[in-house]
Amino acid sequence: MGLEDLYQEIILDHYKKPRNPGRLDGARVEVHHYNPVCGDELVLGLRLDGERVAAVAVDAKGCSISQAAASVMTEQVLGRPLPEALDQAEAFRRMMHGEGEPDEELLGDGIAFMGVARYPVRVKCALLGWMAFKDAAARAAGGQGGGETVYGEEQDETAVRAARGGRGPGGQAAEGESPRTGTGREGTT
Ligand code: ZN
Predict the structure, then answer these.
(1) How far apart are CA 66 and CA 130, in angstroms?
(2) Residues with Cβ within 5 Å of ion ligand 1?
(3) Architecture field, domain 3-147
């Protein structure tokens, strides 16, 4: 069996038998993420125990790549310290964007999605579960509730920084952001 076949097997296995599926009872945070490009959507429930990922579940609808990747993600992060889980998320993101050599140790079964990086449209599918996890982690760490998010990479990067830094260097991440930016511009028609 070649490597490509093995990777196919892993993806198919997770698609057919998703790990940690459904809604999480007693989730601390629940987020809804949607990938409009493909129509994938998922609800991710997360509970942290201090800095550890105590429970995670994903209720996913959509293509096989998105569902399988989300399943692998839950397996990867469950029981891990949050900073490690976020390192895994970053390793997966880098692989999907072809940045550097994939870190197999961090990626685990996620390495199976390496070939997906060749198909830009599917990259969003593969990243959806990880995006949702990072969003939920940032919300949980920041004491926020759940939320609804349509795929957006910039917003995702902010979430990672927030989750990693906690408060960020020198105060709230939102500090210095003008409340006027982005609004009121169109009001002068
Ligand atoms: Zn998809």
Answers:
(1) 10
(2) 38, 40, 62-63, 66, 125
(3) Alpha-Beta Complex (3.90)
